[in-house]
Specification:
It is a single chain. The protein is an alpha/beta fold. 30% of the residues lie in helices and 25% in strands. The chain contains nine helices and 18 strands. The strands form three sheets. An eight-stranded mixed beta sheet has the order 13-12-11-14-15-16-18-17, sandwiched between helices. The chain starts with a helix and ends with a strand.
Length: 402
């Protein structure tokens, strides 16, 4: 009995000691983290529809797999505006900005892809390389990073930014580039040559990769193709450059602002069509269609890329492609926006639609991909009048990724 009581007492003492040691370790860790905290000025969205406020925030040091970045430049994207206007729902308060450039200031445990002093661009679309989508050549649909990104949090579900009163501040796309400093996932850091200026590196994080990728990968533009790009913003102009790289023979930029003519021509567009203002969308689209047809011998373009996110322009992109052509929707439309799909035309004319939109909408429906295929009985007997016809002779497909 005495031996049993002695063993129990020893176990209890050891347990208490272990618990005390654990608490001391935890306290020491918190104190160390507090010592390493820094202040950062950031543009914070507190209320939908209101201006951003410049606040001094507290930034905790990077955890395992995370990196502290001193920001040098950040792009202002339409997707940020969608959060401000409420067209895209997002937890608030939040620091916006999802395309940026900076220098690595500190790395957390286990970081191996970058080192202190590295010059980087920030990507809002990191990928794990091991989930279902990553192993099926769709890293942009990575399920591991999907949830945290659209909640404005890090992988552990928390944020590294807080207001003076301790309120957590979300980091848009797990970045929050509108800040002097930010802590990001290691996989969001893309090494870049220091010779590339920060303003350019920032745009590479979203606008350039989205536009160029829409042309070279999603649309798969081929040498000799005719292309129309609707919208001459950062993404649209990048799509023009992607079409140039792909060897397109004719590149038509469509925009409502005359000033975009020179911008488009300077990066490789061969023609400019002004989208009429002060008229109905139907009338304006009809005039653009007429002009595009006149530039393509009445056929239409092989590829149309819509880079604005307005339903009327998305509809226009489908109308101006030739039978057997491809329309790529890149621009982010407001939540619940929709277009009328001319299914009979898609089927009979073998038009292919690609929706390239990697942004979250709501209820964790981000990145869900569905294929709508309209089989045609006469497809196998259709003549293959161009190399691109091979893609569309057996079916017309609309691949939605949003």
């Amino acid at each position: 009995m005495k031996k049993e009581l002695f063993l129990r007492s020893t176990t209890l003492i050891q347990t208490n000691n272990d618990s005390m040691a654990s608490k001391q370790t935890s306290t020491a860790k918190k104190l160390k983290e507090h010592e390493n905290e820094r202040s950062t000025l950031a543009a914070v969205l507190h209320v939908v529809g209101q201006p951003l406020h410049i606040n001094m925030l507290t930034l905790t040091p990077p955890a395992r797999g995370e990196v502290l970045v001193r920001m040098q430049a950040a792009g202002v994207c339409r997707s940020d505006w969608h959060v401000i206007s409420g067209d895209t729902k997002h937890p608030l308060p939040a620091v916006l900005g999802h395309e940026g450039a900076g220098v690595v200031e500190q790395v957390g445990e286990g970081v191996s892809l970058v080192h202190v002093g590295d010059t980087i661009s920030l990507s809002w679309a990191p990928y794990c390389g091991a989930c279902f989508h990553c192993t099926h050549e769709q890293p942009f649909l990575c399920s591991a990073y999907d949830g945290p990104i659209w909640k404005g949090a890090m992988m552990d579900g928390t944020t590294r930014l807080t207001l003076a009163d301790g309120t957590p501040v979300c980091q848009y796309c797990s970045l929050g580039c509108f800040s002097e400093y930010c802590v990001v996932n290691e996989k969001s850091c893309i090494l870049m040559p220091a010779t590339i200026c920060p303003e350019v590196r920032a745009l590479i994080g979203c606008a350039v990769t989205t536009g160029v990728g829409a042309a070279t990968h999603t649309a798969n533009i081929r040498a000799g193709d005719t292309v129309a790009v609707i919208g001459g913003g950062g993404v649209g102009l990048s799509a023009v450059m992607g079409a140039v790289v792909s060897g397109a023979s004719k590149i038509i930029l469509v925009d409502r602002h005359p000033s975009k003519r020179q911008a488009g021509l300077s990066v490789g567009a061969t023609h400019f069509v002004q989208y009429p203002q002060k008229t109905s969308a139907e009338s304006a689209s009809a005039k653009v269609l007429e002009k595009v047809l006149s530039l393509t011998n009445g056929v239409g373009v092989d590829v149309a890329i819509e880079a604005v996110g307005i339903p009327a322009l998305q509809q226009l992109s489908i109308d101006i492609i030739r039978p057997g052509g491809t329309a790529v929707l890149v621009g982010l439309a407001p939540m619940h926006a929709s277009i009328i799909m001319p299914t009979a035309k898609l089927t009979r004319q073998h038009k292919t639609g690609e929706v390239l939109s990697l942004w979250s909408l709501e209820k964790n429906e981000t990145h869900q991909s569905t294929q709508l295929r309209a089989a045609t009985t006469e497809a196998s007997s259709l003549p293959r009048t161009s190399p691109r016809s091979r893609k569309c002779t057996s079916r017309a497909s609309c691949r939605w990724t949003s």
